[in-house]
């Protein structure tokens, strides 16, 4: 049991997500930020100077070993992994490599008694929480269809793409985790080319197999703002969440050319604004769990399941087929965890659901899908170049099989070491 003194928190990472969590901590009366680290010392210093008495460093171990630190918020890039003997809250994905995640986060923390929480912010968003409550209370009856939409206003910068986990692990992971269906099919995918050597999917549509069915669309180039919506159709009605705006002001206007009716402001244009309240609530929830010595609201296992789903979605996008998450989970190394999501329910799989037609190398998502765009010339700026990435067909079965075998071998190796 933690005493009545505020919990001292160290933060690893002073990037955008680190600053979000730092701001959330400042609003929590039972916690106080103690020290923050970042490889670029000037960024850590700039963040720390906002809060009187907070220290800064470029060495993560100084955060972990600081005498006043009781818990660590891990906000480092996707490819970095936690290695803290303290309580830890980590922003998903915990790591982009599945074996690394198991070894460095879930099993290691459990073995050492570390209270690990995966900060799945959708779970603490008031809108999604309200939908979940209605499902649990039976307000809309038995669930028939779940539709999820997640659109970012702009793709991430090139540096982030080079070191991140791609659209599935860095973006879709939050939405896939809400439904937790047993298998997924990527209906279509569109690729954004930063250069001839670096491509990143910026749009994908998924069908998640179950009875009922869940669908998800993710896109990172929505010019009108941060679009986050959910719709659940039930036997007694329907419930949906709408976008959030900076104000409630609305416009009703007729200028003789067109009629304007709607919000005066665009939706929030960044996740830091859209999910500000969710970050605050997840911080309060984790601190409360620490003080009461209760289980973390979102465990490391929850984060692992989310990563498994993101990896499965990526495999489906490349191979153009249904992917069961058991393929990625690779029994017997990772037994199926109990469903603990406080949001959309696990949807039972339908053995009769057919595979959607997949007859074209390019799966169209709009008429533009049928237009071939030539690759940029060597050395040419290709920031705006878009082309379709093939997601099916071809003689790549051997390579695909080897990749899955490598996944399974690395998982077994990691578990064997622990």
Automatic annotation (TrEMBL):
Basic residues composition-biased segments: 398-411
All copies of domain GFO/IDH/MocA-like oxidoreductase, residue ranges: 128-180
InterPro entries: Gfo/Idh/MocA-like_OxRdtase_C (IPR004104), Gfo/Idh/MocA-like_OxRdtase_N (IPR000683), GFO_IDH_MocA-like_dom (IPR055170), NAD(P)-bd_dom_sf (IPR036291)
Pfam families: GFO_IDH_MocA (PF01408), GFO_IDH_MocA_C (PF02894), GFO_IDH_MocA_C3 (PF22725)
Signal sequence, start to end: none
Annotated GO CC locations: cytoplasm
Domain Gfo/Idh/MocA-like oxidoreductase N-terminal: from-to ranges: 7-115
GO BP, sorted A to Z: NADPH regeneration
Biased composition (Low complexity): 370-382
Protein name from the UniProt record: Uncharacterized protein
Location of the region described as Disordered in the Swiss-Prot/TrEMBL record: 345-364, 370-418
Residue ranges constituting the Gfo/Idh/MocA-like oxidoreductase C-terminal domain according to the UniProt record: 213-324
Organism: Emiliania huxleyi (strain CCMP1516)
GO MF annotation list: nucleotide binding; oxidoreductase activity
UniProt similarity note: Belongs to the Gfo/Idh/MocA family.
Record keywords, A-Z: Oxidoreductase
Keyword Repeat: no
SUPFAM superfamilies, per database record: Glyceraldehyde-3-phosphate dehydrogenase-like, C-terminal domain, NAD(P)-binding Rossmann-fold domains
Top-level taxon of the source organism: Eukaryota
């Amino acid at each position: 049991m933690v005493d009545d003194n505020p919990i001292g928190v160290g933060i690893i990472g002073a990037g955008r997500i680190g600053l979000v969590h730092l701001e959330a901590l400042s609003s929590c009366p039972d916690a106080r930020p103690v020290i923050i680290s970042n490889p670029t010392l000037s960024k850590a210093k700039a963040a720390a100077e906002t809060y009187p008495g907070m220290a800064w460093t470029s060495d993560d171990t100084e955060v972990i070993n600081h005498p006043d630190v009781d818990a660590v918020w891990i906000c480092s890039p996707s490819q970095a992994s936690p290695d803290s003997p303290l309580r830890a809250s980590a922003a998903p994905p915990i790591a982009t490599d599945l074996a690394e995640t198991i070894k460095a986060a879930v099993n290691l923390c459990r073995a050492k008694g570390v209270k690990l929480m995966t900060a799945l912010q959708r779970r603490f968003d008031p809108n999604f929480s309200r939908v979940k409550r209605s499902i649990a209370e039976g307000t809309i009856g038995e669930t028939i269809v779940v539709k999820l939409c997640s659109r970012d206003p702009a793709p991430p910068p090139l540096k982030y793409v080079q070191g991140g986990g791609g659209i599935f692990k860095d973006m879709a992971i939050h939405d896939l985790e809400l439904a937790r269906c047993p298998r997924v099919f990527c209906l279509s995918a569109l690729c954004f080319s930063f250069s001839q050597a670096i491509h990143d999917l910026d749009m994908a549509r998924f069908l998640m197999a179950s009875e009922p069915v869940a669908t998800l669309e993710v896109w990172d180039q929505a010019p009108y703002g941060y679009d986050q919506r959910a719709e659940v159709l039930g036997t007694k009605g329907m419930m949906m969440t709408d976008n959030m705006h900076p104000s409630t002001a609305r416009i009703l206007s007729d200028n003789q050319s067109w009629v304007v009716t709607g919000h005066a402001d665009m939706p929030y244009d960044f996740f830091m604004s859209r999910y500000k309240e969710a970050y605050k609530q997840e911080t309060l929830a984790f601190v409360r769990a620490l003080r009461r010595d209760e289980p973390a609201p979102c465990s490391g296992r929850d984060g692992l399941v989310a990563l498994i789903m993101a990896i499965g979605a990526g495999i489906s996008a490349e191979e153009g087929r249904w992917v069961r998450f058991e393929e990625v989970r690779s029994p017997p190394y990772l037994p199926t965890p109990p469903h603990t999501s406080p949001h959309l329910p696990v949807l039972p799989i339908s053995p009769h659901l057919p595979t959607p037609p997949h007859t074209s190398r390019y799966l169209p998502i709009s008429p533009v899908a049928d237009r071939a765009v030539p690759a940029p010339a060597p050395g040419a700026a290709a920031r705006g170049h878009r082309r379709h990435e093939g997601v099916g067909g071809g003689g790549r079965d051997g390579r695909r099989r080897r990749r899955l075998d490598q996944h399974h071998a690395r998982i077994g190796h990691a578990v064997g070491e622990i």
